[in-house]
Amino acid sequence: MQKESRHFPLAKARSAPLTPNDISSLLLSHGTMTLEFYAPRGTDAQTPHSKDEIYIIMKGSGWFRSGSDRFAVAQGDALFVPAGVAHRFEDFGEDFDTWVIFYGPEGGEIP
What we know:
Elements: H1 10-15, E1 25-30, E2 33-38, E3 52-59, E4 61-66, E5 69-74, E6 78-81, E7 87-90, E8 97-103
Antiparallel strand pairs: 1-2, 2-8, 3-6, 3-8, 4-5, 4-7
């Protein structure tokens, strides 16, 4: 059986409503994976997540703090954050947009 493909243009993601009680917009849920759109404004107050995640920076630049690491990020960069690790974006502009992909079991995958 063939599954339906989905297309998520950036313009539509930017206009999607925030998920209730969340700071991002849920665009797709499939098995353990979710695709979300995140565009923090001002500050990034997120807390550690219960699943592994991947960010793909779509627009803008700034800094990313993950645990004790801090490094510059820009459009086109991809980031991996294991479940439970404190992280956030810092010093980003008003045009900062990122895709967020959560996946795997609660607590993250075991390497």
